[in-house]
Amino acid sequence: QIVLVSGHLDSWDVGQGAMDDGGGAFISWEALSLIKDLGLRPKRTLRLVLWTAEEQGGTGAEQYYQLHKENISNFDIVMESDAGTFKPSGLGFTGSAKARDIVKEIMALLQPINVTDVYDDADGTDINYWMRDGVPGASLRDDLSKYFWFHHSQGDTMTVQDPNQMNLCAAVWTVVSYVIADMEEMLPR
């Protein structure tokens, strides 16, 4: 059984793609790194996917889906961060009402950093195939007030990234992915 965390690597002709979506790829990598560094071993496999070709029609995600869809019942949740890594506020979630209630309980664990909201509907080009077929999905929600200052521009460089805000995003990704991967049962469909 698999809990998938992800971001994508794709830079436009301008900028470096640091915020869109290097930050999402980084916090996904960091989540698994933190779990390993803490010596935690969840019941399910945590899988990192760094998607390619999202801006070229999502062909990387489609290829992955085609290769793994026969095991769709083993995918517990698919998570994608593709809206920058500014100050997080919670998760967008797509799934059953029972699964949503569980995710709300998990997000309550993040009260100390004030990131507890669960919004309607996860979004992410790279996880849409899975959600369409009933796999629960989550996307990081954060402060988008500056996102389009840098999106697909020459300004999308590493200097946009705030290490403290990225650490908060990584904390959200780490807690959510680990807790879901370590629950007794998979999220209800």
UniProtKB/TrEMBL annotation:
One of its GO terms (biological process) is proteolysis. Residues 2-173 form the Peptidase M28 domain. The keyword Ribosomal protein does not apply. It is found in: Endoplasmic reticulum; Golgi apparatus; Lysosome; Secreted. Its main location: endoplasmic reticulum. One of its GO terms (cellular component) is extracellular space. Signal peptide: none annotated. Keywords: Carboxypeptidase, Endoplasmic reticulum, Glycoprotein, Golgi apparatus, Hydrolase, Lysosome, Metal-binding, Metalloprotease, Protease, Secreted, Signal, Zinc, Zymogen. Belongs to the peptidase M28 family. Homodimer. The monomeric form is inactive while the homodimer is active. PANTHER family: CARBOXYPEPTIDASE Q, PROTEASE FAMILY M28 PLASMA GLUTAMATE CARBOXYPEPTIDASE-RELATED. This is Carboxypeptidase Q. It comes from Brachypteracias leptosomus.
